[in-house]
Write a structure and sequence with these properties.
Helix content is 20%, strand content 29%. The chain has five helices and 13 strands.
C-alpha cells in the first residue's frame, strides 16, 4: 500500500494546512506545479479555495485540467476538496456560467439564501455542520466515511456554492442548511470529493484524510 500523495499546486490555495493534515496521517506528500507528475502518481489531491472561475482558469491554463481528467480514468484514488470537488462537475453558475472539468455529470449551484421556511439565512455557509446520509440511504461502509457509520460527524464548511450531481447514487453525504439538503461529499469508484475541509475539521477530518491515505 503506497502512502505517496501528489498534491497539485495551481496557484489558488494555501496548501500548508492540507500538507500538514496528510503528513500527520502518515502520507508522503509531493506538492507539484508540473502536470506530468500525475502520470505515475499513486494518489492525487485537488484542493481549491476561492471562486470557481479563477480556479478553473488556473487549473486549465497550467495544464492540470487534462492531467486530472486522464488520472480520473485510472483506478487510482483521486480526491477533490471544496472548489476542487466543484471543478469535477460540468459547470458552475458562480459569477456567470463557467465550464468545469466535466469528469462528473452535474452542475454547481448557489447555496440558497432563504430557508425552507422562507426565512433569510447567511450565505456563505460557514462553520461546523453535521454530515448525514443522502436520501438514497447510501451506507458509509468501505468509503471515506467508514469510521462514522453510527454517527453524524460535524465537519467544517466555508462555501457559497455546492455541487448538484445529476446522479444521486454518487452522493456519499449531505449536510442540511436552512432545511436544504446540500451535497457534502461524493464517492464514485476511484473518485472522491468533499465540499467541507477535512484539514480544518479536527480529529474527524484527520480520520477522513487517513482513510484516503490508506486506500
Amino acid at each position: 500500500m503506497s502512502k505517496k500523495i501528489v498534491l497539485i499546486d495551481y496557484g489558488m490555495c494555501n496548501l500548508l494546512n492540507v500538507v500538514r493534515a496528510f503528513e500527520h496521517c502518515g502520507a508522503e506528500v509531493h506538492v507539484t506545479e508540473d502536470p506530468k507528475d500525475l502520470l505515475h502518481a499513486d494518489k492525487v489531491v485537488v484542493p481549491g479555495v476561492g471562486s470557481f472561475s479563477e480556479c478553473i482558469r488556473e487549473i486549465e491554463s497550467r495544464g492540470f485540467g487534462e492531467a486530472v481528467r486522464l488520472f480520473s480514468e485510472t483506478d487510482r484514488p483521486l480526491l477533490g476538496i471544496c472548489v476542487g470537488m466543484q471543478m469535477f462537475f460540468e459547470s458552475s453558475e458562480e459569477f456567470g456560467l463557467h465550464a468545469g472539468l466535466g469528469i462528473l455529470n452535474g452542475h454547481v449551484r448557489a447555496v440558497p439564501g432563504i430557508t425552507t421556511e422562507g426565512e433569510p439565512q447567511r450565505v456563505p455557509h460557514i462553520g461546523w455542520s453535521h454530515l448525514t446520509r443522502p436520501e438514497t440511504g447510501r451506507e458509509w461502509g468501505g468509503t471515506l466515511l467508514d469510521d462514522f457509520q453510527q454517527h453524524q460527524p460535524a465537519v467544517y464548511f466555508v462555501h457559497s456554492f455546492a455541487a448538484v450531481p445529476a446522479d444521486d447514487t454518487m452522493r456519499l453525504a449531505d449536510t442540511v442548511y436552512g432545511g436544504h439538503r446540500i451535497c457534502a461529499a461524493i464517492q464514485k469508484n476511484n473518485l472522491m470529493a468533499t465540499q467541507f475541509h477535512p484539514e480544518r475539521s479536527g480529529p474527524i477530518g484527520l480520520a477522513i484524510a487517513k482513510r484516503f491515505v490508506n486506500l
